[in-house]
Design brief:
With 140 residues, the protein is of the alpha+beta class. The chain has a single domain, classed as Thiol Ester Dehydrase, Chain A (Roll), CATH 3.10.129.10. 21% of the residues lie in helices and 39% in strands. It is built from three helices and six strands. The chain has a six-stranded antiparallel beta sheet with strand order 1-2-4-5-6-3. Strand 4 and strand 5 form a beta hairpin.
Length: 140
């Protein structure tokens, strides 16, 4: 049974992110399943830090993007989810190619949600794991 409370597709998510940090960094949504969303970010001049690796902050942007999108699509109609806390553990540097993140729910509650984002390089090796906690705001 799908987790999503609203119609969801790669096209609708992509359109929502035009002219945002997401599009400026080259993040692309690649898959939507019943209980997950995946997106990828290129490791290029826009996203590398001065030592040639994917910038850790960009990994966090990917994680927050996936967690925020997932949380809002999992909210009841009229509700909105906003970030409360995010953490990231950088496990492996990536110098080129793409890093793909996949978000899955850990907890979906009435007032909070917790999401896990696992990010892997093109070889399937985990480069970063992140967890985001979202506040669910009721309609005003």
């Amino acid at each position: 049974m799908p987790l999503w409370q609203h119609p969801i597709s790669i096209d609708t998510i992509t359109a929502m992110c035009v002219n945002t940090a997401v599009s400026h960094l080259g993040i692309e949504f690649v898959a939507v399943g019943d209980d997950f969303i995946s997106a990828r970010v290129p490791v290029d001049a826009r996203t590398r830090q001065p030592f040639g690796l994917l910038h850790g902050g960009v990994s966090v942007v990917l994680a927050e993007t996936l967690g925020s999108v997932a949380a809002n699509y999992a909210c009841p109609v009229g509700h909105q989810a906003v970030g409360l806390d995010i953490n990231a553990n950088h496990l492996r540097g990536v110098k080129s190619g793409w890093v793909t993140g996949t978000v899955r729910a850990v907890h979906i509650g009435r007032t909070t949600q917790v999401w896990q984002i696992d990010m892997c390089n093109e070889a399937g090796e985990v480069s970063c794991v992140s967890r985001i906690t979202m506040a669910v705001l009721a309609p005003k």
